[in-house]
Amino acid sequence: MRELLEAVATGEVSPAEAETQLRGYATTDAGRFDAGRETRRGVPEGILAAGKSPSAVATLTQAALETTGHALVTRVSEADVTAVTDEVADGVTVAHDERGRTLVARCRGDERPTVDAEVTIVTGGTADAAVAAEAETVLSVMGVDTTRVDDVGVAHLGRVLDETEELRAADVLVVAAGREGALPTVVAGLVDTPVIGVPVSSGYGHGGDGDAALAGLLQSCTVLSVVNIDAGFVAGAQAGLVARAVSDARHGST
Amino acid sequence: MRELLEAVATGEVSPAEAETQLRGYATTDAGRFDAGRETRRGVPEGILAAGKSPSAVATLTQAALETTGHALVTRVSEADVTAVTDEVADGVTVAHDERGRTLVARCRGDERPTVDAEVTIVTGGTADAAVAAEAETVLSVMGVDTTRVDDVGVAHLGRVLDETEELRAADVLVVAAGREGALPTVVAGLVDTPVIGVPVSSGYGHGGDGDAALAGLLQSCTVLSVVNIDAGFVAGAQAGLVARAVSDARHGST
Amino acid sequence: MRELLEAVATGEVSPAEAETQLRGYATTDAGRFDAGRETRRGVPEGILAAGKSPSAVATLTQAALETTGHALVTRVSEADVTAVTDEVADGVTVAHDERGRTLVARCRGDERPTVDAEVTIVTGGTADAAVAAEAETVLSVMGVDTTRVDDVGVAHLGRVLDETEELRAADVLVVAAGREGALPTVVAGLVDTPVIGVPVSSGYGHGGDGDAALAGLLQSCTVLSVVNIDAGFVAGAQAGLVARAVSDARHGST
Amino acid sequence: MRELLEAVATGEVSPAEAETQLRGYATTDAGRFDAGRETRRGVPEGILAAGKSPSAVATLTQAALETTGHALVTRVSEADVTAVTDEVADGVTVAHDERGRTLVARCRGDERPTVDAEVTIVTGGTADAAVAAEAETVLSVMGVDTTRVDDVGVAHLGRVLDETEELRAADVLVVAAGREGALPTVVAGLVDTPVIGVPVSSGYGHGGDGDAALAGLLQSCTVLSVVNIDAGFVAGAQAGLVARAVSDARHGST
Amino acid sequence: MRELLEAVATGEVSPAEAETQLRGYATTDAGRFDAGRETRRGVPEGILAAGKSPSAVATLTQAALETTGHALVTRVSEADVTAVTDEVADGVTVAHDERGRTLVARCRGDERPTVDAEVTIVTGGTADAAVAAEAETVLSVMGVDTTRVDDVGVAHLGRVLDETEELRAADVLVVAAGREGALPTVVAGLVDTPVIGVPVSSGYGHGGDGDAALAGLLQSCTVLSVVNIDAGFVAGAQAGLVARAVSDARHGST
Amino acid sequence: MRELLEAVATGEVSPAEAETQLRGYATTDAGRFDAGRETRRGVPEGILAAGKSPSAVATLTQAALETTGHALVTRVSEADVTAVTDEVADGVTVAHDERGRTLVARCRGDERPTVDAEVTIVTGGTADAAVAAEAETVLSVMGVDTTRVDDVGVAHLGRVLDETEELRAADVLVVAAGREGALPTVVAGLVDTPVIGVPVSSGYGHGGDGDAALAGLLQSCTVLSVVNIDAGFVAGAQAGLVARAVSDARHGST
Amino acid sequence: MRELLEAVATGEVSPAEAETQLRGYATTDAGRFDAGRETRRGVPEGILAAGKSPSAVATLTQAALETTGHALVTRVSEADVTAVTDEVADGVTVAHDERGRTLVARCRGDERPTVDAEVTIVTGGTADAAVAAEAETVLSVMGVDTTRVDDVGVAHLGRVLDETEELRAADVLVVAAGREGALPTVVAGLVDTPVIGVPVSSGYGHGGDGDAALAGLLQSCTVLSVVNIDAGFVAGAQAGLVARAVSDARHGST
Amino acid sequence: MRELLEAVATGEVSPAEAETQLRGYATTDAGRFDAGRETRRGVPEGILAAGKSPSAVATLTQAALETTGHALVTRVSEADVTAVTDEVADGVTVAHDERGRTLVARCRGDERPTVDAEVTIVTGGTADAAVAAEAETVLSVMGVDTTRVDDVGVAHLGRVLDETEELRAADVLVVAAGREGALPTVVAGLVDTPVIGVPVSSGYGHGGDGDAALAGLLQSCTVLSVVNIDAGFVAGAQAGLVARAVSDARHGST
């Protein structure tokens, strides 16, 4: 702890980051930011913008930048992006993915980690794009390279069979699927690596809004694990944890 | 009507059958038997044994035999089979399918119709066998020949792809599937003929007892029509109506 | 394959259509268009506009036109119609059905097939009109002539009984019904041909939004197959597959 | 009150009945019996045997007999019937309806009231028989004559149309229906009198156990009121209240 | 029938009304209007404005006026009221109840029937007002006088006990209740006449939107019949049928 | 800690109790027994017998006796009672409540605490008796005296109003109610003390098994807190915590 | 009563307040205001603004002010606040809490009671703030001081463990939690005082809108009582009743 | 392929195994056994005994032994174990786990693979034991060593905090939890490795049978993936796939 306090004294470490390292979280006007999650849990603490005001989003983004050097915000509106962009200091880059509704801010010099393992993200159709993009962003922040295999819904098996080699090349797969949710089962039947299924809130009538897809993934005849409907962030982060474990094993660090 | 009454007078037609032809249904101690359904609707009136006493089942079977020359009973217990066998007249044959829990009784000389069209019944696994057998029996009573393609669940796509030619040869398909219910969607993606999906009450936990399968079939990205969970009788009869329409068209009768 | 490539060389076939014939689908900016579905499956690949931007709808419509000569778009908004109309080439006709919210575009010279079998579409009340119109459009694209029997809800049996002859004339029926969903059961009790029921999302309170109608159709005491709530496209396409099978049988082509 | 106490003194009224008249309920070892319900509410307090031990049923039956002169017990087992029969005093008649699982006990000299209005009970099939019998018993205890119209399910409209005159003759109708629950709507469309629908717990799969029927009755396009699934007692009692109001009006007593 | 046609010839009866009397319904651009319902069923055919365009509402209102002399429209918007008011002929009065969202139009000289029986409508709180008003309007059209007992929710029993005399004076009661839906049970425990409960879509969280109230009414320990959530029209009409039966009995007409 | 270890050395405290005091739980063959819960949480750790073998129940009972001097077991079968009785040491008393299916074992000399506050347990009918008895037992173990007010269901308001004084005398009330669950709302409207509602799994059809009661309690128009269906243990323990807080305040100990 | 009427005569008591004291409620144009609830029940009658017009809210606020000296309004919009502020008499203070959407109005000289017991309100994250604020306001009106422990969600146990002393200091706790609703269980495991859990309507997909949190609280392995989703008012009022009981016991008043 | 056929010729490989290697599955009287799953998918094809007859289980076990050298059967009854034991050849070992209801049969000389990665299985209480045992067995067959951390439910946080080091030592964790399902969230907050949550069908009333636990896991504020209720097999197999990926990376094989 002495080291840390000396670093504060010399200005190498900001007081906010020091408090966070000591207590595990930062207290801001907009709530406590669990900055310690990243070291404790290995997953960036995502800031869920939905249900918060743009100014609260900007405040929490600041807290994340000050304590961890970067920030990941999900389900952002245009107003959130503007509020964050207006408020961040010079030298902070802000990347906004419209489709996935994510925003990543990063202080100058902050580097994302490097993970030597590959995650492939698979979608059945255009309705799955936003969920896949959210997963892609969290994986990118975790330092994992991703490949995309899109529009391979099972109504035409040729599309997914054409990609068998690509699917088998991944260390872990995230497969998003709405409607009847059959794609993750079909994909998991083709590979010998872990598959994480994400039900997507497409569909209509009975079983719509992702309910049929969730139930179908939970009932899959093959081996899958599942996250909640539209939970691209969770699926991406879980895939990232697996990828990092593989990468660490490759490099002998665990 | 005169002709009918004269036939009664001469004993060619039993009074019970005559009343049925005139009113459209027969009245028995165990309830009214809708004997006219077969001519009016083209589907044999199935007697659902579940929830009835064996003696009520036997009485209704008698009513069916007297008015239509044959009887189809579904969801039979051993006791039902015994009760029916004990009570039917000489010369009546009784066929009991244990797996599908059906019973077909037929008077001597009663002939099943001949339908020139083929129905293929497809199952994903052993849990679908009872439902498939029920469909097979009703189709047999309607005079339709059936082919079976079994155990081709989508967890291993090779099994269903190996049967593509067989699947394409049918005029109409009945596809039963439990768990996540993906098979009917995959099959319907391989053929250009009508597919009728039957969700099966397998599975466990969330979406178990056929709920996930039903929702998945209703949400299918391809074109399917669906019947209720475990409704082998309804799926078979609907496939039989389509087959008969095709057969009649082949032979110019409609 | 040589023939096809020569046809590309001479310009008889566009490269896009050739790729589609070879791979079974076309890749566009807005997603893969399953152009092969129509030959493989016998059902036009409907483009579901709901949830897509007007420009994505226009791009996919273009892909459909280039690869199959026509396009069927469902659940269109006014903006979708404008975007498609603005972008299609000269000589493409665009037909928009407001009630059914469908759009059909067709290249000059593209002819719809001719199916010699009749589908009758039956509705219980005005709330069923949009669903019926969607079914009617897909059947029209498949080349099937349709008859409409409207506003014959069972609260007044006289209305449906008056149409018995009309109902019996069809080769296959699509019956739409909201609220308690009793109409398909009553209609199926009057005819000896296949009936496909469509629950409609009318109603309110417990069982509203089509839930009671769906459950009622699945529990029907007569023989019916069912599609999801408001699934006019699926019901129409399934009826079209049956009609085509009957037509082919009439003309000896299968 | 003096009159009552004098009647107790002279033995015309038992102390138990006097306490009941004063407090409105009787206290027994097996619980308080709401003996006052019949005068206060016009409906016999039914003793629900299900979930009680045979001896508790017998004790409550005794309490009912002592305070009101008769007892109505529903959902009885064979053991309940034996327990009651063994324990009642000489001169008490015990009538047990096996199908409806009801028991009515009556002291010598106790007379059921006379209601001059008719209730018709309608069923769709044999599965509705127990519910109809329960309604019939409660109406009988209330002094109302009932007519039965059975097995007129809508899969064959002829059956119910044949009974139109009978249906129109009633002052109020109780219509029981399982599966899709369409019968009460069809019946209510034929008459101009109040119809009370009872969903029955038949059916299977989605919407089974009376769920589809309940939802269908609540969504009916015509005018109906509804009771819970299998609530033959409630439907009968409500019909009885209407019948009594009509009877009283006929005889000028209200 | 001759009489009717002669009345058409002399102009006493319009052709539209004559067709309606003969066929039982009128055909308009906006759908078939079941004008015969009122004579056949004793209940005015309500026009449900929700989900229809103002011009369709006006057209159906016209059809109702021409065939029955009056029209009852429920769930009207301001635009519907304007459209109807603009289009009706001179001499037609239009009454709009804002709270109940109903509209009643009546031709000059058209008289509502007179029913000699009283219905009391009871509410628990202000959230029940719209439902009660809808019931009141349909009863008024049926010629039944209504009394209102408002804001007597069971959280304060004194309020409802103070009204006991009023409640007992009615021939039949409609009791509306949202949230936990306890009021109809409490009221039914105080009177000896039929009670019809209407669950109201108030409440929040688990069991909100009337679900708890509906379930509570169906489970009531006392005798009640129930209509769907917010079904003021149905409750009012059912109460009206009972009231008319009582009135007819009072005046010896049945 | 030294004191404790010395007490172990001298035999005043058993090693098992010492370990429990140090670690907060005891480890047995049948699982870890959270013996510390009582001191940490103020609530006896109930042993839920349902789903455990009689011998496992006996083992855990032993662990509880050794570490806390007494044991409370809920949902016991006859076999559980026998197993416990056979195994406990001399001097341990075993009290079994058949109705509540509870068992309380107590070492000689172990005294239950004394709480100076009163809890009244209220039930609507006989179906609530088991739940009330379970609550009563846990309160007794916590040292709280309870009063019972039984069979005061709201179908007859007189019963509950007669008990108003009794209800107002309590410091806190537990009110159990099945079917429509109206009783806790009515009781809470009569008193100015905390009311804890317990929904009971009585009822049938829609909303049966306690679902309607739970939803009704959560929607109550008055102020209540609620526990899960049939959770007599939880309701009793929560009431006991309130009672103890009141008692401590009375005696100045907090 | 004479005293009260004399006070009216001398003007000490307004006629409205007198009527309220005599009847227990006040009748206004906007409904009956249960002014007596506060004395009868010990809980301020909250006026739920949601679903009422601003002018109705203002009228009921007036009724509350005139009969009880203060008013508590929940779920207010900006328009409600304006309407109330415009209409209240001089000397009435109006306090509006934006986050909790509550409004408290108080006549000059009206004093809130003093309760000598402490309630701690605990939240898991920012989504719980509105619910906590609503609870805080009702407790403030009841005269109870509250402490807040915020943002201690269980994903990082350190946050809640750091607050253990604070949590143990309270007499009763209100714990709000959305998503998986684990916080109240964890908190209740740390204290020996009553905990009231409030599920919050955060979350998404399966179990969203508070459904998972509610189910989780009802299933808690520890002792909790629960209120409906987002029911901050009810949780606060129930905690207030417990606090007042403790305070009264401390000061010997009960 | 030649090599394989020569091996068949020389008897090194049985014809059954050869067919399986060529087609990917074996056909038996009791259904097709997907023997290729293990090589294709890396997960042993589990035979689900539930719903199959003992003799069918024995037949499928034989097929598995002949084609893969070992067999894993889940949800076995005593009768299944007897049937398998009676039928297997000499030299086959049969291991039966009563708690997890699994059976593993292995031919002499068949070796399980070795995976150099550790999976820790965590349970909240004794109700989770069967699920944990099922996961343990599948992991054992996959060659993965497992550690157990049992009875650490969150009602007493000390239990789980005491095990933090143990939890952090694993490469991947399977956490089973019933009731409110809070344990996987708490565990995942303590480690930086992948956590797979298994909801367990304990609990009662609302959210019982694992529903609350499933919803809670899907809503978790931390990063988790989930399997269906009681799906110990799936959770174990998914953890095994992750462990094998890590092991392969450690040893450079991928």
UniProtKB/TrEMBL annotation, chains A, B, C, D, E, F, G, H:
Residues 117-248 form the PurE domain. Coiled coil: none annotated. InterPro entries: P2CMN_synthase_LarB, PurE_dom. GO terms for molecular function: hydrolase activity. It comes from the Archaea. One of its GO terms (biological process) is 'de novo' IMP biosynthetic process. PANTHER family: PHOSPHORIBOSYLAMINOIMIDAZOLE CARBOXYLASE-RELATED (PTHR43064), SLL1489 PROTEIN (PTHR43064:SF1). This is Phosphoribosylaminoimidazole carboxylase. It comes from Halobellus salinus.
